[in-house]
Amino acid sequence: MAEVRLENVTKAFGNLTVIPDLSLTVPDKSFTVLVGPSGCGKSTLLRLIAGLEKPTSGAIRIGGDDVTRAEPSKRGISMVFQSYALYPHMSVARNIDFGLRISNVPKEERERRLNEAARILALEDYLDRKPAELSGGQRQRVAIGRSIVRNPKVFLFDEPLSNLDAALRAQMRVELAELHQSIASTMIYVTHDQVEAMTLADQIVVMNKGRIEQIGTPMDLYDKPASVFVAGFIGSPKMNLMPGKAIGRPDIPTVGIRPEDVEVTEGDGWETKARVVETLGSDTIAHVRVEDVGEMTVRLPGHIRLNDGDRLKLRADPARQHHFDADGRRMEGQTA
Amino acid sequence: MTAPHVWRNVLRIALLLVVASFVLAPLWATVMGGFKTNPEIRTSAFALPDAWNTEFYGAILSDPSFWRYLGNSLLISSAAVVLTLIVGSAAAYVFAQIRFFGANFLFSYLLLGLMFPFATAILPLFIKVRDLGLLDTYWAVILPQTAFGLSLAILLFRTFFAQLPKELFEAAYIDGCGYVRFFIMFTLPLSTPILATVGVFVFVQSWNNFLLPLVVLNSREVFTWPLGMMQYRGEFVTQWNQTLAFVTLSLVPAVVFFLAAQKYIVAGLTGGAVKG
Q1: Whole-model pTM over 0.90
Q2: Which residue among B176, B189, B275 sits closest to A73, beta carbon to beta carbon?
Q3: Residue pLDDT, tens place only, A212-231
Q4: pLDDT above 90: percentage of residues in chain A
Q5: pLDDT at B273
Q6: Chain A residues close to B172, C-beta within 8 Å
Q7: Pick from B170, B175, B186: which is nearest to A52 by CB?
Q8: Is residue B64 within 8 angstroms of chain A, CB to CB?
Q9: Which helix (DSSP H) or strand (DSSP E) does residue A77 occupy?
Q10: Does A70 lie at the interface with B, CB-CB under 8 angstroms?
């Protein structure tokens, strides 16, 4: 059992409070993604769990044990850093088994675990190389290998893919998902990329200004965002947020419509003019101007050919609108 | 290559040659002087010798006291280098790694040493060394030289250590590696360029130092080579050829030490990028 619990944790650096009173439970064997804009405290939260920072108050439990004051190496965690943080003067093999050497794991056991990790990550041919002789993706795998050999109860990832190019990132995303399936451990993953969050997570924690905005499965967050912030953060392209009068409901402060919930219609609808059209093949993303409403982004099927400046009539699916009150919280029961 | 480039290069090379000649000409005269007779040195200092007299070099090489002076210098300089590197890197590591109350004050205090000329301190140094009962021992030279080398060493070390990525320590820390082990297994191996630079600097300083050994050393058994050189200066006559041969031979270890460390210094200037 390696459930991670944060109980009323606060963290302040001097006068600056980064995390004001936060409680969170990460279920055992889950892949939980902490996501939010930069400066929202997600990395700090991860570092608190890792033990690289000590909370100002509150308690942290891993697998039931109170580890609030424990050294990182005693917590049963391992961490993968954004910059990989490989040891530049050590070979790949030494990088991977360094932690085991430090904790005096017997040689046979050490080699068994090293070979196991190298096999899982396809690093067998690179064990004698130095980090400088590896490509970005290989370095990332070494960093993950270093985590695996320690048999941690909890894996922590701090934006591990953000230094990779787009193609490699997509590939590593799949590898990480496979890794989670094969070694069923709790994983906590920090990112600012909502695509990574949506594709990898069983549970997403959306953070903003040190507070948790919403916790839920990816589709929970997508279908029922609890606040305007989550609505705007999850989903790409972003949800359109507009005043209620745009849909003839002036009683609703903010209404949210996802770009994919808008369709071209012959009947009643908004008169719009396409400003910019992005043709992606499978989809066509149109940034349109709606008279009296403002800018809107719509995602239309790829077979609809549009040019910049075209006029079209659009209609939003009334069953898939999100209503938010004046404080930006979701208004329950309002969506049909 | 266009004409302005050629001229610029010619100018550059000419300038470098002039600068190099300032260093090389005295060295040349010194090496050659060891082969000449005293009158010849006075008349043509820079020319090749008329006859290659090797007896002056031979006399010095066969003189056991020369080897003793050289050994003393080597011992003292090496000890000063080792001590400066150990104490300086350890202190700099603390300044670079740990934030504690008064760190800035303490660091500035150490840096004050940079503005403190060695010669000014010679009298208090002598008194201190005498009170400690170290006069006429190797330590009388080693300890003050280490102390005076520390401020520059700490300054250079701290800057270099602070540039090592912080995540490196955090990764090792999570792996169970503490501060001391990190210092030995990471900071030092990754800092060879700066260790070599400071090492050469301290070694050459110590090797060439004349004033301190002159003041604190009295017996010939512990003399360093700059003091030993003085034996060729008589009251009335200075044996220039022997002195120059002596200097030439004494330069060799410092040059060898520099050449050995040079590889790391150059590596430090060109490499150093940690993130790929």
Answers
A1: no
A2: B176
A3: 999 999 999 999 999 999 99
A4: 51
A5: 38
A6: 87, 98
A7: B170
A8: no
A9: strand A77-80
A10: no
Mark which residues 175-234 of B lie under 8 Å from A by CB: 175-177, 181, 186, 189-190
Q: Which pair of tokens denotes residue B129? A: 């060394």
The span from the CA of B170 to the CA of A47, in Å, is: 10
Best A43, A44, A77, A81 member to test B by mutation, with max B CBs in 10 Å, is: A81
Q: Does the pLDDT value for residue B276 go beyond 60?
A: no
Distance CA B90, CA B191 (A): 12
Q: How many CB atoms lie within 10 A of CB A125?
A: 10
- Residue ranges and CATH numbers for the domains of chain B are 63-270 (1.10.3720.10)
Residues paired with A60 in a beta bridge: A6
Helix (H, G, I), strand (E, B) or coil at A233: helix
pLDDT beyond 70 at A200: yes
Contact between chains at B176 and A103 (C-beta distance less than 8 A): yes
How many cross-chain Cβ pairs, A to B, lie less than 8 Å apart?
A: 57
pLDDT value for B60:
86
Rg (CA), chain A: 23
On the question of a cis peptide bond just before residue A237, with omega within 30 degrees of 0, the verdict is yes
Q: What's the distance, CA B260 to chain centroid?
A: 13
Instruction: Place B275 in a pLDDT band, splitting at 50, 70 and 90.
Output: very low
Chain center to CA of A117: 25
Q: What is the pLDDT of residues A228-273, one digit of tens each?
A: 999 999 988 899 998 888 888 888 889 999 999 988 888 888 888 8
- Which residues in chain B touch residue A139, judged by CB atoms under 8 angstroms apart? 276
Q: Determine if residue A197 is left, alpha or beta; phi over 0 gives left, psi from -120 to 50 gives alpha, anything else beta.
A: alpha
What pLDDT score does B259 carry?
Answer: 84
CB contact under 8 A, B176 and A136: no
- What is the dihedral sign for C-alpha B195, B198, B201, B206? negative
Span between the terminal Cα atoms of chain A, in Å: 41
CB A57 within 8 A of CB A8: yes
A229: closest CA among A259, A206, A203? A206
Best of A43, A44, A53, A73 to substitute, by most chain B Cβ atoms within 10 angstroms, is A73
Q: How far is A107 from chain B (nearest CA, A)?
A: 17
Domains of chain A: 4-230 (3.40.50.300), 240-324 (2.40.50.140)
Phi, psi of A299 (to 5 degrees): -110, 115
Nearest CA in chain B to A47: B170
Rounded Cα distance between B209 and B211, Å, is: 6
Residues of B in contact with A52 (CB under 8 A): 170, 173-174
**Length of chain B as a residue count:** 276
SS3 label, residue B44: coil
